[in-house]
Amino acid sequence: MTRRPTLEDVAQRAGCSRALVSIVMRDAVGASDLTRERVKQVADEIGYRPDPHAQRLRRHRSKLVGVTFAAGQEFHADVVDSLYVATEALGYDVVLSAVTPHHDEARAVRTLVDDRCEGLVLIGPQISTRRLSELASRIPVVVVARRTRGVDAVRSDDVAGAVLGVDHLVGLGHRRIVYLDGGRAPGAAERLRGYRRAVRAAGLPELVATGGLTERDGADAASSLLAADELPDAVFAFNDRCALGVMDVLIRSGVSVPQQVSVMGFDDSPLAGLTHISLTTIRQDCVALARAAVARLMERLEGTVEAADAVDVVCEPALVVRGSTIPRL
Hints:
alpha/beta; 434 Repressor (Amino-terminal Domain); Rossmann fold; four-stranded parallel β-sheet; 12 helices; elongated
């Protein structure tokens, strides 16, 4: 059988009515044990599986949570994985819509709404606060990794994370600590604020340079540092991808990491823990972020909270020390 088996196929093979097969598949009352056993055996033999989408439509509930994320961002991928676990435990499925250079955020969101998702989790969205508020007025929305007034948000304490990073470097004796800014990315303003707070508290100069979100951004920043008169003691990048770009260019240029320049990132992506990279970084708790986001979304879906009562849930980050930072020689 090349097409997908139907209830009619099961009924014909089992020698009973379509209605009786439907009763068995729904585990409803009205069929004998012998009939249930026979129908399920036939269903297994021909490969019939109930259509979950059709079942949801009949219940007038999709039981779907739509998720937008930036393709290529490992932190986003880690959050997505944790969202699968958190939603599955509650009987929901996840529908993904990636943001790419050819599939912008507005289109990604529209796709999920058109797919009848009951609620949305937007990871690191960059659309305006006004548009987020408008969207949240039509469908339950929880934003992850960005603080947004008037919309439920779950995020890491980026200020505290940056302070942790700077304090670690200061404790190693580094005095010229360059911070590579994340521009307008979600959380960038808070991380920059944390960096500035920490270096001021240590009585050190603020050395902020253009960074970004990708390895290419980190590579460009490293090239600029190499062209300067003096290398810094340490580089603290906006995220791990940017930090990896820095490490690559420095090492290929003959600069030893960490013997000459310590490098650290932010996120604790899977690549950071590889032995040949061993990147010191700030870990975001993806599991906690996902659980908190799903818990809040369920409250919205169940109507147990007032529409105007937006929350800002903050999860604490943690310092992960590896081999890319050492005491100043």
